[in-house]
Amino acid sequence: MTPDAAATAATAFQPFAGLRVIDLTRVLAGPYCTYLLGLLGADVIKVEPPGLGETIRRRAGGDPALTAAGVSVAWATQSANKRCITLDLDAPRGQQIFRDLARGADVVVQNLRTGSAERRGIGYAQLAELNPRLVYCAITAYGGNGPRARHPAYDSVIQAVSGLMSLTGTTDSGPLKVGPPVIDYVTGMNAALAVVCALFDRQQSGRGRFIDLSMLDSNFALMASALTAFMNTGRAPAPPGNDAASRAPVSTTYRVADGLFAIAINEEHQYQHLFEAMGLAHLMRDPRYATAAARNENKASLRAELQRVFETATAAHWEQVLNEAGAPGGRVNSLAEITAHPQFAARGLFQRVEVHAGEASGQMQLPLAPFAVDGERGAIRTPPRPIGADTADVLAQLGIGPGEIEDLRAAGTI
Questions:
Q1: What is the domain partition of the chain in residue ranges?
Q2: Which of 51, 86, 242, 325 is a plausible cystine mate for 273, CB 3.0–4.6 Å?
């Protein structure tokens, strides 16, 4: 950990200090849930299969040496503040060790396929007998019941199945997926919220809870406005392209002198601010654009009026002029542009850490919690760890001696 990282960790908001979380998850959704808990102070023990560990550890895209050592950027994004152990959960002794871990834990989070944990003797009912205060979060693709309960999925499949893809793109392009794996991350956020709710309830009731959370349900939450509208009207919206969800007639993207610019104008006073700031105040007196109904009827010509003016200046000009006037708008940025923007730096959303794995080492910038409490977002206290780096220490805390640890290693159980 760098000196700056150590100072940040020492002063960070850590409400879950002393909370123990067993992380039996992989890829993105489950690991992001436990990552959030770890940022806020929880002791997270990450359980992976012996050998190569989780497959995403070696996903290409970052420092080649660290990736080869099993600490890829893709894995590290949601893996700091975790003690990493390996455990063969198909071996009876591995299952017993997991049960011993759960006996002393506050939270277990797993994203095995429905029924897999129970077959291994580590389902909620089995662990609750050992630890009635345990909060157990099961993350699956489709949930614990229903005809698809046992089906596997990834983010892109859920985007397709849920109907989200039908709401993106245009009529010409057809359905398109959202670029980043948004379903994975919103599922992780929902899981963290559910765990916190169950822990709060435990303070009152003294007992643990079982959380059934699916990627599909989380995506439906993202689509709440579209689903609710459809279920109450029977009308499915056409894919909007770059138009805003409000369908307000001018809320879309426009060409400016150096790229694209998006505006969202929904309220009557915002139209007045927009037209005045663009030198088009006369449009508020034009019968074609003076009322909401008229603007909807003459949307194409109104957009043409705006386009003619937008292309005369840069995005920076319009950001300043329109936002100061109270008309929301912004440049369509690339990742390079937004991460170089002073607003990005001002929010302090990333922390730089030193990462070491065998002979490989390097620096990574990793995300913090997407909210601040009294100015603090939690902190990375320990960087992402190599495969099984903490197995011996964690097992020793369970009372397993060095001799048995070596036997377990020789047998491939750890």
A1: 3-223+348-411, 253-339
A2: 325
